[in-house]
Design goal:
SH3 type barrels; 404 residues; 10 helices; Fumarylacetoacetate hydrolase, domain 2; five-stranded antiparallel beta sheet
């Protein structure tokens, strides 16, 4: 039992019943306060916790940690320490803030900040970024639209967690404005490409996992070992310019239609915190090759929502999906990624691919929700969307719900 996951634990910090940050969560991120102090932080309710201040006040003395491990502008050094240390730190935070304990008022002043007085920064310096394509419904939908509904999945899809290497430099924090990308497109009625702003700007609802330090080049990580190398997860929006993508992707895959921006959430929720929400995935048929076999429940029940807002209407729900719909799970993705001896490093990011559920309300992109533009989506102000307009705002939410 991971101590911090005790579902009955309450904190002495007030937490409302609908908060995404009960004491069972204890995510990790990088915080900046108004006096420009930057620290590795966590969050309970509407307060951030300055882990560097806690460490300086000797709250982590029982754990083998460098003095400056939380005095950092990214989580990368902490990610190098590995799962036993990540778990000890999270368990200790749960203990410190447990309602059975008290904290000195003078300590509270330096450790806690109200969330609205804190700026969240990029949590990780992403070394390498990979995007998978692991939702069967998404792959099927794309196959139906662009190829043949009778052979929607390509022959490799049920055997390989298909993925491609993406661009790490343009992974940005949620809230950062993005610019409509320009590029080459092939107009439907033309044999030669034109250049200009993308007219088919889209989002992709994804989750990503962040790795700890992997093994040496030439070594592999098995499905049994994979969870030990995964620190946690964030929400991931793989912004996509469909018209640019369509013209450029043959034969080497996505490029400039993707690399202009991908947005992530500021808090990384640990895999440990997600353990209580494990569920079985779809039974994989045909049988996978031995290196992709796994044991236990490896999917996770994470509710996902996408809301679209604009300057004249509030964010409005356009998709409701769930991370449990993934066909290939994270242990298979990581085992596949390293099966050729490719090494992974602390701070690598691996995104799931668009997560679409079986029903049309659960599709994870405008491309699918509007079925390639053929079914426009009505908006609260009477307008409709096939793809994203200038000044639109997109919100993605992810949450787990305890049955207690
Ligand atoms: Mn994607």
């Amino acid at each position: 039992m991971i101590k911090a996951n005790d579902p009955y634990r309450k904190s002495w910090i007030e937490v409302t019943s609908h908060s995404d940050f009960p004491i069972q969560n204890i995510p990790f991120g990088i915080c900046k306060t108004s006096d420009k102090t930057i620290y590795v932080g966590s969050r309970i309710g509407d307060y951030t916790i300055n882990l560097n201040a806690l460490h300086k006040l000797n709250y982590f003395n029982e754990i083998s940690l460098d003095r400056d491990i939380f005095n950092k502008e990214t989580l990368n050094d902490f990610l190098k320490l590995g799962k036993p240390i990540w778990r000890q730190v999270r368990d200790r935070i749960a203990e410190i803030f447990d309602s059975n304990n008290v904290m000195d008022e003078s300590h509270k002043t330096v450790v806690l900040s109200k969330i609205d007085e804190v700026e969240m920064l990029m949590p990780v310096k992403v070394g390498d970024y990979t995007d998978f394509y692991s939702s069967r419904q998404h792959a099927y939908n794309i196959g139906c639209m662009f190829r043949d509904p009778n052979n929607a999945l390509l022959p490799n899809w049920l055997h390989i967690p298909v993925g491609y290497h993406g661009r790490a430099s343009s992974i940005i924090l949620s809230g950062t404005n993005i610019y409509r990308p320009k590029g080459q497109k092939l107009p439907d009625d033309s044999d030669s490409p034109s250049f200009g702003p993308s007219k088919l700007l889209d989002f992709e609802l994804e989750m990503a996992f962040i790795t700890g330090q992997g093994k040496n080049l030439g070594e592999t990580i098995s499905t049994q070992e994979a969870d030990d190398y995964i620190f946690g997860m964030c929400i991931f929006n793989d912004w996509s310019a469909r018209d640019i993508q369509k013209w450029e992707y043959v034969p080497l895959g996505p490029f400039l239609g993707k690399s202009f921006a991908s947005s992530i959430s500021p808090w990384i929720v640990t895999l440990d915190a997600l353990e209580p929400f494990r569920v079985a995935g779809e039974i994989q048929k045909p049988k996978v090759l031995p290196y992709l076999k796994f044991e236990g429940n490896k999917n996770i029940d994470i509710n996902l929502e996408v809301l679209l807002g604009s300057y004249n209407f509030d964010p409005h729900l356009i998709s409701k999906s769930n991370y449990k719909y993934m066909y290939w799970n994270m242990t298979q993705q990581l085992a596949h990624h390293t099966i050729n001896g490719c090494n992974i490093n602390a701070g690598d990011m691996m995104a799931s691919g668009t997560i679409s559920g079986n029903s049309p309300e659960a599709y994870g992109s405008m491309l699918e929700l509007s079925w390639k533009g053929s079914k426009p989506i009505p908006m609260p102000d009477g307008s409709e969307r096939k793809f994203l307009n200038d000044n639109d705002t997109l919100i993605m939410r992810a949450y787990c719900q305890s049955k207690i």
